[in-house]
Amino acid sequence: MLGTAGLAGCGGAPDPVPTAQVAPGTTVTPSHYLALVREAVAAARAASIRLDALPDGLTAAQAQAAAAGLAAAAARAERAAEQLSAARLDDQRLESQRKRVTPLDVTLASALRAAADAAEGGNVTALDVAVAQAARAAAAIHVATGPAA
């Protein structure tokens, strides 16, 4: 459904995914920020794979069966969005990118949560709407985090 398998990170050797919660307004290093972005992109990629696995013509029962996996994808995206929202950077180029990417990641997380909730209730119509919104957000994240960003 989403087709975002081509989402790219920021290049170079991957930094470990930060495990400590970033307190709101905390200035992070560029390396830490790039690790946060890679996690946000990985969360979008993982959600894409899960959403792409949903069959066309999904039934309410199939939607309900997918609910737990969608909830897990939403939780991962929400954590990534919270981290990016909290962080700040001294490097203005990266801070500008963070300001562009963060709302997209928040939108993705929100759409995934809506998809999970719709799936749990067997509401295929609402699920389709949320999946389309998630697809747009994931595509925008790809553009915002690509090599030219």
Would you write up a description of this structure?
The chain has 149 residues and is mostly helical. It has one domain (30-145). The protein is built from four helices and no strands. The protein is elongated, with a radius of gyration of 15 Å. The two termini are 25 Å apart.
In short:
The protein has 149 residues and is mainly alpha-helical.
Q: Give a short account of the largest sheet.
A: none
* Total separate domains: 1
Low-confidence regions:
1-15
Helical run tally: 4
Tell me the overall shape: elongated
The Rg value, from CA coordinates, equals 15 Å
Helix fraction by DSSP (H/I, runs of at least 4): 55-70%
Please write the string of helix (H) and strand (E) elements: HHHH
Estimate the mean pLDDT confidence. Answer: 85
Cα end-to-end separation: 25 Å
Structural class: mainly alpha
* Beta-strand residue fraction: under 5%
Total number of strands: 0
Would you spell out the secondary-structure blueprint of this structure?
Layout: H1 30-52, H2 60-86, H3 92-120, H4 124-145
Helix pairs in contact: 1-2, 1-3, 1-4, 2-3, 3-4
